[in-house]
Write the structure tokens for this entry.
Amino acid sequence: MIEHARPFDLAADRCGPSSSPIIRIASRGLAPLIQIIGLYVFFHGHYSPGGGFQGGVLLAASIILLRMGLGFANTQTVMPSGWTVPLGAVGGLIYIGTGFFAVLCGGNFLDYGVFPMPWLDPPHLHSYGILFIEVGVTLTVMSTLVAIFDHLLDG
Amino acid sequence: MSWLIEVFLFVLMVVSALVALRSRDLLAAAVTLSLFSFMAAVIMASLGAIDVAFTEAVVGAGAVGVFNIVAITLTTRESRD
Amino acid sequence: MKLHQALVLLAFAAVLTMAAMQLPARGDAASPANRVFNTRGEPVAGAHYISHAEKDAATPNMVTVILADYRSFDTLGETLVVFAGGIACLFILRRLKP
């Protein structure tokens, strides 16, 4: 038998703040940096490796880090637990809505070249269409990972 | 000479997987699985697939490790086999 | 581990190593994965995407263009699968509040 302490003291109060001040300060300091990197990865996905999925996972990681360090009750203002699944549905609806908007404008499903913005040529319309659907992917991935974490620990 | 680095990474990957299998301490096994995913990401990067490497590093070494550790806190820390 | 299990594993490792030795070199232009035309002389999809991606979508990262423009229906399915996994976790792990 191995006699260990719990990895972090979630056993007594799983949803409360950590008892170690180092973990609390470090999570508060690291989370904004991770969010900045996540937003950079998401918005710069057109020009460098990255995109919606990776940016969404990074944003979810920052929120999970805050939940583990500061407790559930203190981080409800960052991302309320009741909003995670509806936000994921909103992300999916943004994706599908972009596709059907192209259908309404007379093209195929998810064909961004027919959007009614006459001041843009079709390559740039494709570029903005990619950005729209990446918004949907980011919202869905971020809120789904946070929802899984919330329901694992909080029930 | 780059094949030498890749052979080293592959050996490290197999060793980390074996350590994660043989370890009695499940927290050490979870951390070693994160190391396995990170080695896979480095191999992908050395093959030139930066996007796949990024996804593997973020998901395999970040999110899955967190979920494994949360599952350990909900159950027990030592394995029985 | 018994002896015959170890022998079977070693033989399997030898077969896999022999198969991996025969793979073409990385970046070999003559290998079948990198050809512009297939054996029947028809153009391959990958070469078309590589040559047209930046012109079609004004985006330098061709991985993003292929994932979100040429193959965006695949990405839609991937996103919905992630969301369905979250919904399944919600139904399994949710404790009904009394």
DSSP finds four helices and no strands in chain A. The interface with chain C takes residues 45-49, 51-53, 84-85, 88-89, 91-92, 95-96, 99, 109-110, 112, 123-124, 126-127, 129-130, 133-134, 136-137, 140-141, 143-145, 147-148, 151-152, 155 of chain A (CB under 8 Å).
